[in-house]
Amino acid sequence: MTQAPLRVAILGFGHHAVRRLLPAFARSNETKVVGLWRRNQAAAAEDCATHGIEHCFATREELCTSPNVDAVFITSPDAMHLDDALLAMKNGKAVLCEKPLAMNAGEAAEMVAAAKAAGVYFGVAQNFRYNLSLEFMRGQIAEGLVGQPQIAQAHFCYAAQNAPRKWIADGSLACGGPIGDVGVHSIDALRYILQAEVLSISTLAKQDELSGNVEAYAAMQMEMTGGIFSHVVADARAPYRTLLEVIGSEGVLTAESGFSVDKPVEVVHRKNGQVVSSTTLDNVDGYVRMLDGFAAAVRGGADFLATGADGVLNMRALDAAYKSWRSGMREAV
């Protein structure tokens, strides 16, 4: 017998929900958006009417206590994630929370503890773990395609000054600038494809006239388990570009535009400077696969690829990255 879709309400509805989440929900067989709440109630009413969303909740509390909601997808600014998650969990709702999970690792750990106490499922929307390009790279590396991984790098660049999320430059609302916003994607991707953990981080970052009290761009060097050194670039002042690359004892695996969900991604294997193979993958279903994976986990099926507990590890890495920027020293995770 086919189960009814998991009924999800979006808390903190905004540009990301319209651009990425609603199209994914529309293609998901396992989930359905049934409601939303946002601080601007006039905008919320317009969103519900435009997108045919049944419940336009007047308050966060109304959303989190509704019997018509099974799970809450939190897409509010970073500083609100903790209170939003605790409210949903206290009312027995499963939670899928956008990254970065919180303002720091302590808050993230509090969220994990609250989910355990409430007996509800808790996941992080690290959607790139559901990209076929990352899944392929993880499998190839595990099978020894490049030998022993030695050096890895992940770049994520975008022009934040042109983005609609103006709160991203407000340190009272955002975990940070691009380190917290997209650097967390790069750190998480490296952890995922290498199946390795971050041990220490050294950070260089720069502020500018547009960045407020957060950084504008940054470079991080990370020591990871397995003797792997990695380099992460998080740049909020450059044209859009992403890159994932792993250099091993037997070759190199490179994915230019490795995080892209808007066009096919080419993963290239090189050895001795020559192309050995090239595999083209399409990540268009990444968000859909994430939603369906979350629904399966909530129902007791397969484990979700980005659990709340795993998200704490990313937050510890971010904490170390920001501590290093302030101290000028390499910091342990």
Automatic annotation (TrEMBL):
Superkingdom of origin: Bacteria
Q: Which Pfam families match?
A: GFO_IDH_MocA (PF01408), GFO_IDH_MocA_C3 (PF22725)
**Ranges for the GFO/IDH/MocA-like oxidoreductase domain?**
137-253
Q: Which family does it belong to?
A: Belongs to the Gfo/Idh/MocA family.
Provenance organism: Granulicella aggregans
Which keywords does this Swiss-Prot/TrEMBL entry list? Oxidoreductase
Every copy of the Gfo/Idh/MocA-like oxidoreductase N-terminal domain together lies at: 6-125
Q: What is this protein called in UniProt?
A: Putative dehydrogenase
What PANTHER family does UniProt report for this protein, alphabetically?
CONSERVED EXPRESSED OXIDOREDUCTASE (EUROFUNG), CONSERVED EXPRESSED OXIDOREDUCTASE (EUROFUNG)-RELATED
